[in-house]
User: Fold these one by one.
Assistant:
Number 1:
Amino acid sequence: MNTSNLLQTVNSITTQGKGILAADESAPTIKKRFQAINLESTEENRRAYREMLFTTPGLNEYISGIILFEETLYQTTQGKKPFPKLLAELGIVPGVKVDKGFTPLANFSDDNITQGLDGLGERLSEYKKQGARFAKWRAVFKITAHNPNRIAIKSNAEVLARYAAICQSIDIVPIVEPEVLMDGDHSIERCRDVSLVVFHQVFHALFKHKIIFECMILKPSMVIAGTNAQLKATVNEVALATLNTLYETVPAAVPTINFLSGGQSSELATTHLNAINSLATKKPWNLSFSYGRALQEHALKTWNGKDENIPLAQKKLLKRAKLNSLACLGKYKPEMEKE
Ligand code: 13P
């Protein structure tokens, strides 16, 4: 392990006012996204879509890292430039999603476990040759009256820590992503209770596995009421609950926390990030974004699979990237949406 290589990667990503674009949708997920615009998920369509995103003029002003799906790591622009090379030339750090998705945790109904540890070291070495400098692994926790079970939390935390240890051992910065899902009708208080235990167990496992906290990125969900909750939390309640939960569970040695958007609308994800950064309390970490849907949704709809829509779609992506950049600085205002 070479700590200075890891720190260099973390520092490049943790530029104030910049965040991560999550463009690592797996084959089934991108198929679902393309279905919404009536587009077949062929390898060429996936390549063309990612080229549209990555060649957005000015993207590197607001985006410091992009998470790629494995397939994309080996794809090229129409002009035959490998995507990781294109991004590196733009000063955007290329990374890769390395988990293999989740599967039901046997004996624990409604709980899941993320897969992909077998052969991970070898895969990572190959991805590194291809230009990846960081990786991502997502664990999901569904809230019901009885879930997540403690065993599911502990098992996923353990797997996240083993993944992170393998990454750091070969100079790849791990993004550790524990996602408490928004699906359901639970209250913000219930989300806070679950998130507290999940984040605590994740950091306990990371500590036991000797992870260097300075050389990792945390990608958590925000503390928020369920999508079908009768009582929605206010923006300020979400910001406070999220920050307080992080204070109680995340060491100050972690340099940056980059939230996922998790199904929030693009505007709400920006509003929440801005509110978190606007709270007049001390924040030991950089607080930024690693959004998938909340950055891409407008751009994808505008693109609609057609070349002639590329310039407008890129403008939509750039706008969301810029507004989220402002939210990192607590300088976003809702009226900017109309500009
Ligand atoms: P969303 O922001 O759409 O939740 O995606 C982020 C991500 O990388 C999920 O793993």
Number 2:
Amino acid sequence: MAAPAKTGVVIKLGGSVITEKAKPFTVRKGVLERLSSEIGEIWQAGNWVVIVHGGGSFGHPVASRYSLHVGKSSGSPPMAISMVEDAMRELNREVVSHLIKAGMPAVGLQTLGVAHASGGRLDWLNLPVYESLVSFGVIPVSYGSLVMDSSLGYCILSGDDLAVQIAVGLSAKKLIFATDVEGVYSADPKSESAAVLLPRMSLSRDSIAFGSASNDVTGGMKKKVLSTGPAVQAGVEVRIVNGMREDVLKQAAFGKPLGTEIVL
Ligand code: ADP
Ligand code: IPE
């Protein structure tokens, strides 16, 4: 199937933005409501939109309870599959219903049903489903989650990796990561007050200090930046912006050079 004709924007809503990462199973409803209305404006401007969201305080605590990390082999009970998926479906339901309330035809897509991995890496993604939905003006909403893996049994696929593969597969124009800081800094801005924001970050030239991601089973900001490689290489404009500040996501989608652009 051909890639959708209109301009495409893939948006990854970080778990740090839509949930309170330190409080298990807590959605930031006000933030989600505001972001839904910004996404509505992006979509109404004639772009096709795909949303991917992270696990935040839903997926991460459950995945770490079962010792599941990216690429880790399965030694956990089958209950892990059920519990991680159930937690993520609950969060997905919240995201989808906020988008519908804001007037958008959003449809939750269960990641386990549209993606598969091998050795901890995505090896199959049902792109035709995304293509058909966006060609109907629908907004598919997927999420980082547990997927079946032909060598490991199952593994955690981050929303960042999923968003990158969707953006590449559908030839999106932009891929925007909304997170809880302004972008990529010279060091973790939460622990280094002297850290400076980088308007551009080169994957091949810049070496950045990243803070640890102790309660994050998918590796935090470092992993997010490194995962963008295939999209940058494919010519997708990739940006990491602050989703906690009003209108930043919307303005970034409309071309304002906010946050950090990731380049080769
Ligand atoms: P999300 O949940 O939005 O996907 P993460 O929590 O995984 O995002 O990563 C965002 C966090 O990464 C920020 O809250 C920040 O404290 C941390 N971080 C660590 N190192 C850096 C850095 N060099 N630049 C920006 N943020 C960093
Ligand atoms: C993690 O996805 C999914 C699970 C832990 C089940 P992400 O890695 O995209 O989540 P956030 O954005 O960091 O919360």
